[in-house]
Q: What sequence folds into this?
DNA sequence: GTATGCTTTCGGC
DNA sequence: TTACGGCCGAAAGCATAC
């Protein structure tokens, strides 16, 4: 099953201040450029009725809510994380195996706990909803299905506070009428491409020739789409280990090509990342610079070292060098600057090398 | 021809 | 007509090794 926390950031704000409950709430990431510059992270369902959606500009959200008494709040991630951690530890108790996805979603394999019965799984899901509501005052939506792919789509089917069970023999008829963008991995670009091929629903996709899918989307994706449309998925529910990358990105006060301004921002981002990772004893070998230009296009350059980056200076200098390259390859001004590190390894007391013998 | 690793872009939340 | 964050993982695309 998939457990999805309803409009999570905005619901956390309702929990913190219940008097806001009946008003539109919009949780925002402010960029600090102008008073209202930035994007909507999450809105509660009252705000969604007015057309407010995740990712839209705060400016547009304000216009949609101009006539009503709406609340705009900045994201308070550490507060949401605390609630999230509490809910996740409740969920673990119900699962044979558990897989957290982001801050507000988790897959639970309950095959054994439910004795392989979907009726049992449904009762389990209801108990989870009740316990999370009574202990954390948060509603969740749950999808139960024969695998992760179906469970995810089922959870999306009825929200908020919804429970949808799709048994194996119902899978095909459940999926067939749904639009293709409900499938994980099918976003705006892919669905546009599929529509030119005459594919609008998951049913259309399931009837489409596999070889033609592969010709259009490549072997990996083409094969995946074919099986996904049939509701087939054998990926296991398994705990994700350490993150594979850590990044920081920040919007500059104004679009600029001023190297001093950009380098200044980069230094701060590098320090933040380096301090965090070295405290956790994590080393990294790959360093990337990310630039979002005036036209919103995203560009990146990276460099991988043979050994872990030994100090903050090397990190900062490398990112600066990569950024110089990015600036040199465009005439446009830079809007946002970012740093990413990956290629992790845990720090050893002392690495033994061949030369030690 | 296959396996593997690195760089860059894409998509989800 | 515009407006527009900050992350993450996955996959494509390419190069290299065998």
A:
């Amino acid at each position: 099953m998939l457990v999805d926390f309803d409009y999570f950031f905005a619901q956390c704000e309702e929990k913190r201040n219940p008097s806001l409950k009946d008003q539109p709430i919009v949780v925002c990431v402010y960029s600090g450029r102008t008073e209202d510059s930035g994007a909507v992270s999450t809105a509660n369902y009252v705000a969604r009725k007015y057309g407010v959606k995740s990712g839209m500009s705060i400016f547009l959200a304000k216009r949609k809510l101009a006539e009503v008494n709406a609340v705009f709040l900045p994201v308070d991630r550490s507060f949401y994380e605390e609630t999230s951690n509490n809910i996740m530890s409740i969920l673990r108790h119900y699962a044979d195996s558990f897989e957290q996805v982001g801050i507000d979603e988790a897959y639970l394999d309950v095959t054994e706990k439910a004795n392989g019965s979907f009726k049992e799984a449904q009762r389990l899901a209801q108990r989870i909803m009740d316990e999370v509501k009574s202990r954390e005052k948060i509603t969740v939506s749950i999808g139960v299905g024969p695998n992760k792919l179906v469970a995810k789509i089922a959870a999306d089917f009825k929200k908020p506070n919804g429970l949808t069970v799709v048994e194996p023999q119902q899978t095909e008829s459940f999926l067939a009428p749904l639009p293709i963008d409900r499938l994980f991995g099918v976003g705006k670009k892919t669905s546009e491409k599929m529509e030119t091929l005459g594919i609008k629903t998951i049913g259309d996709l399931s009837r489409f020739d596999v070889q033609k899918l592969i010709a259009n989307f490549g072997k990996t994706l083409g094969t995946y789409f074919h099986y996904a449309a049939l509701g087939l998925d054998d990926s296991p529910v398994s705990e994700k280990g350490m993150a594979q990358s850590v990044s920081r990105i920040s919007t500059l006060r104004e679009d600029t090509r001023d190297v001093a301004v950009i380098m200044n921002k980069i230094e701060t981002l590098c320090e933040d990342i380096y301090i965090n990772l070295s405290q956790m004893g994590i080393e990294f070998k790959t360093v990337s610079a990310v630039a979002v230009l005036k036209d919103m296009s995203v560009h990146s350059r990276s460099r991988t070292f043979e050994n872990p980056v030994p100090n903050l200076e090397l990190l900062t200098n490398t990112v600066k060098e990569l950024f110089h390259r990015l600036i040199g390859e465009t005439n446009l001004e830079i809007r946002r600057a970012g740093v990413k590190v990956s290629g992790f390894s845990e720090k050893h007391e002392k690495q033994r090398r061949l030369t030690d013998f």
